[in-house]
Specification:
By secondary structure, the chain is an alpha/beta fold. The protein contains 10 helices and 6 strands, in the order E-H-H-H-H-H-E-H-E-H-E-H-E-H-E-H. It is globular and about 55 Å long. InterPro entries: HAD-like_hydrolase_sf, HAD-like_sf, HAD-SF_hydro_IA, HAD_2, HAD_sf, PGP-like_dom2.
Length: 224
């Protein structure tokens, strides 16, 4: 068996508007000025408290907590309105192609909490697609390898039988820390050159290219 683990924000779904709006609402609620969207997107992939600390390194812990609470409240309100970030073009076709292979399991490793992940999966009809789902609720933030280690444990596989797919350097660094191959995608929130610099084995330009690369990786492993 092989395990393909996907990040969510910036990899499966395009949530940049939702994330930047929620963060700026959290900042305003804490009495702070809004930030440029690119600055906010630079920390996507980290668990929320760690992300806020990175954005506000000089702020007090109480201020961090106010921003975290405001961000979460903004997300809850967004979900209550029925807002859901869209899947990237080709994502469903990629998942279907991988599922069609008898020896490939699918997983998720995301900085989202489980509640947020479930909302996205349910909205897109993906709840039954992933064998293992690892979230920020029970693990240290990326790039700590704990999420991937738990995914490997669930699947009963060694790190040489898995690949992590993500759009940020945190995903690639987590993969390296876990001894897992790391594939980057060029449609997310960190530049391709940064992903390559972090050690990505490849950076796919679109979902068809990613699908081809993942199937090739799995089949090459079969021949080894």
């Amino acid at each position: 068996m092989r395990l393909v683990v996907f990040d969510v924000d910036g990899t499966l779904v395009n949530s940049q508007n939702e994330i930047t709006e929620a963060m700026n609402l959290g900042l305003r609620g804490a009495g702070l000025p809004e930030m440029d969207p690119l600055q906010i997107l630079s920390i996507v992939g980290l668990s929320l408290p760690i992300a806020v600390e990175r954005l506000l390194p000089e702020a007090a812990m109480d201020t961090h907590q106010l921003v975290v609470v405001g961000y979460r409240e903004a997300f809850v309100a967004s979900r209550a309105r029925g807002a859901v970030p869209p899947l990237y073009p080709g994502a469903l076709d990629c998942l279907a192609a991988l599922e069609a292979e008898d020896d490939i399991l699918l997983g998720i490793a995301t900085g989202k909490p489980m509640r947020g992940l479930q909302a996205v999966l349910e909205a897109h009809g993906l709840t039954g697609r992933f064998f293992t789902r690892q979230t920020a609720d029970g693990h240290p933030s990326k790039p700590h390898p704990a999420m991937l280690e738990s995914a490997l444990f669930d699947a009963g596989l060694g790190p040489d039988r898995a690949v992590m797919v993500g759009d940020t350097v945190f995903d690639i660094e987590m993969a390296r820390a876990a001894g897992v191959a790391g594939f980057g995608v060029d449609w997310g929130y960190h530049p391709a050159e940064d992903l390559r610099g972090a050690g990505a084995g490849l950076v796919a330009q679109d979902y068809p290219a990613l699908t081809q690369a993942l199937l090739h990786w799995a089949r090459q492993e079969d021949m080894a």
